[in-house]
Specification:
about 270 residues, alpha/beta, Rossmann fold, binds NADP nicotinamide-adenine-dinucleotide phosphate
Length: about 270
């Protein structure tokens, strides 16, 4: 690396929540940023704020549900002669209406945004990182990826399980290359996520305040785990207890417990 060259990180889903919080953490640590999501307004407002840290911030809007988006992002970044030293695959959403009540297009979009796009972006940017002997890849998965299946948001947990396992595999492959890979597995986090999926009222009454974490806390934990090159991190003591329980309970028992949880939220 040229002496004095600042590192640049690409963050997907940076217009809100955990992605925006991670952008603030990286800007504070002296990184330049490439922010992407569909909504330009919040991205531009965040970019303006991050200039306050002295960061060079590039905004590129795109819709990761479009299968062509990862390649388009890669090309748009290459056209600007930017070098991506870090990638945060964070964009995501869930649908909780039930498998049959959710349009096939929405299922396809979930898979593209949270599974296909992270894989493709990692495949596009990791070779350059490995060649330069430095890279950071943070995949924002979920506690849901470590829990038994739920009804209602049938695909969300399996997509996040995939992301955790794929991150762990890439973490092993990249060992010794200077490229760190971590799956970040938040539990309930205060962001726009539950407004977007329409469950804000239900989850707020079902889960006490102590079960919720701030996006800022989750982002700090994710940053530190990636720097330490941990394959996976789950922020919060209680979330680790839940993940541990899920691992050790018999499948049928765990499934019954989580099935009850989905019913409480009136998903099924
Ligand atoms: N909040 C939680 O309780 C929680 C728990 C565990 C894991 N997570 C995970 O954390 C990640 C971030 O979620 P969040 O909680 O921060 O939610 P959020 O506040 O709703 O933010 C989601 C971000 O994803 C972007 N996004 C959604 N669909 C997109 C698309 N088609 N193309 C491009 N960008 C898209 C949104 O931007 P635009 O709308 O501008 O496109 C937004 O920036 C997700 O992967 C989520 O699964 C969240």
């Amino acid at each position: 690396m040229n002496p004095g060259r600042r590192r640049t990180i690409l963050i997907t889903g940076a217009s809100a929540g955990i992605g925006a919080a991670l952008a603030r953490v990286y800007a504070a640590k002296g990184w330049d940023l490439i922010l992407t999501a569909r909504r330009e307004g919040p991205l531009e407002a965040l970019a303006e704020e991050l200039h306050g840290y002295g960061a060079v911030v590039t905004v590129i809007t795109d819709d990761l549900a479009d299968p062509a988006a990862p390649r388009r992002l890669f090309d748009a970044i290459a056209d600007r002669s930017l070098i991506v030293d870090g990638l945060v695959n964070n964009a995501g959403f869930s649908r909780t209406a039930g498998f049959l009540q959710t349009e096939p297009e929405a299922h396809a979009a979930m898979i593209r945004v949270m599974l296909t796009a992270p894989v493709e972006l990692a495949r596009l940017f990791a070779p350059g990182m490995a060649e330069r002997g430095f890279g950071r890849i943070l995949n924002v998965a979920s506690l849901a990826g470590q829990m038994p299946a739920t009804g209602g948001d049938t695909l969300y947990g399996p997509i996040k399980s995939f992301l955790i396992k794929a991150s762990q595999g890439l973490h092993l492959e990249m060992a010794g290359s200077g490229v760190h890979v971590t799956a970040l597995c938040p539990g309930y986090t205060l962001t726009e996520f539950h407004d977007v999926n329409g469950t804000r009222a239900e989850v707020s009454s079902a889960y006490p305040a102590w079960m919720w974490q701030t996006a800022e806390h989750v982002a700090e934990i994710g940053y530190a785990a990636l720097e330490a090159n941990r394959p996976k991190v789950t922020p919060g003591f209680m979330n680790n207890v839940l993940a541990g329980l899920a691992k050790h309970l018999p499948d049928a028992t765990a499934l019954r417990m989580v099935g009850g949880h989905a019913k409480r939220l009136k998903r099924i």
